[in-house]
Amino acid sequence: MESRILRYMEQYDYENLVFCQERAVGLRAIIAIHDTTLGPATGGARMWTYATEWEAIEDALRLARGMTYKYAAAGVNLGGGKCVILGDPKRDKSEALFRSLGRFIDRLGGLYLTGEDVGTTLRDMEYIRMETPYVVTLPAAWGGAGPIAPATAFGVVQGMKACVEAVFGRQRLDGLRVVVQGLGAVGSEVVPLLLEEGAQVAVADIDPEKVQRLSAAYPVTVLDPQAVYDAEMDIFCPCALGGILNDDTIPRLKCRIVCGSANNQLRDEHHGALLEARGILYAPDYIVNAGGTIFDTDRFNPGGFQRERAMANVARIYETMAALIRLRDEEKLPMARAADLLAERRLAAVGQAKRLATRPERVPE
Ligand code: NAD
Questions:
Q1: Which of 88, 166, 205, 348 measures 20 to 30 Å from 40, CA to CA?
Q2: Class of CATH domain 149-291+300-309+316-345
């Protein structure tokens, strides 16, 4: 097992993997630090009922690497990290557990900055903040930008509009059929934005309460969660969990565009090429879901957090997406690879500049 982990870390150039355990409060968590070239490793804390320990490790590692690329491509000066907490967010949460995690994060001395993710909330972040200053996502009253999901949702729709322009030759979504998978913090905010754009929206969630709440508030069609991949649609908008674009689902998709917030949508790298081969434009997840992060980290910009500037930067996801589509056409690459290239070019350039800037003075002979 050990050699498998280290081999994986070596293959994708990870810096650290930290295991955190405190039996008294039931904490079992893993912090993965991928790359700190651009700044401290940053990424949310996810709480999930992982089937195995390896599944949790793999998720932390994959998500941390995703964050490196996301920040690099979005022009944010942070590195890639992620924390996963092994447990059921509906059953196992407590103040003591999050404070314990906060103390572990504090020990890292700023190497890793945390935030909200699947299964965690701003309330949980407040508990972590009681023990450490290294928390990015916080309520406004605690000095943070507040909920970030609305900005993430806005960014997804900006990216979708760039895709629609490339595929359908128009900017508005009038009459286009969009299926939204997952009605959590992001999905439930995406739906009204899509309706405002004139789209016909169908939704699915495994949580009947969320479906009920959303369908009571908006004119949407409800789909069975199992049926989303077979639905007749123009755009598929995955806003639930990762790995959903795979050998089983891709052949079933009847859409021209996949654009949603879920992290790590492609189960494997080759699934990006499989989508292209089916004539489906894939909006790389970490490009279109960067809105929350861009919004959230605006407080590191001059003058501290400014909502207007933050949202203007989120709107730039449209331009980034349009630039990516051009890069794909020029370099004849699948979209996912074009996005990686954009991020890798920035990491390499900044990494090089940093090495030059930090070169030690020559010691006089
Ligand atoms: P969330 O936990 O609030 O919502 C996820 C929703 O997906 C839940 O309602 C859940 O019931 C549903 N779901 C799970 N499995 C499903 C399935 N098989 N079919 C249909 N629905 C299913 O999470 P969120 O904050 O809305 O994030 C959604 C995705 O977007 C995640 O992958 C997350 O990592 C990513 N993301 C979120 C943000 C953000 O600002 N919250 C930012 C970037 C990326």
A1: 88
A2: alpha beta
- Residue 301 identity: N
67 CA from centroid of ligand 1 (Å): 16
User: CB under 6 Å to ligand 1: residues?
Assistant: 117-118, 148-149, 152, 181-187, 204-207, 210, 225, 239-242, 261-263, 289, 292
> What is the pTM (predicted TM-score) of this model?
0.82
Q: Which residue has the tokens 């690497």?
A: 65
Residue 90 falls in the annotated catalytic set:
no
Return the CATH fold of 14-68+78-142: Rossmann fold (3.40.50)
Q: Are strands 257-258 and 200-204 parallel, antiparallel or unpaired?
A: unpaired
Residues forming CATH 3.40.50.720 domain(s) in the chain: 149-291+300-309+316-345
Distance between CA atoms of residues 110 and 133, nearest Å: 8
Residues 159-214: tens digit of each pLDDT = 999 999 999 999 899 999 999 999 999 999 999 999 999 999 999 999 999 999 99
Rounded mean pLDDT of 133-156? Answer: 91
Query: Which residues of the chain does CATH 3.40.50.10860 include?
Result: 14-68+78-142
CA of 237 to the centre of ligand 1 (A): 11
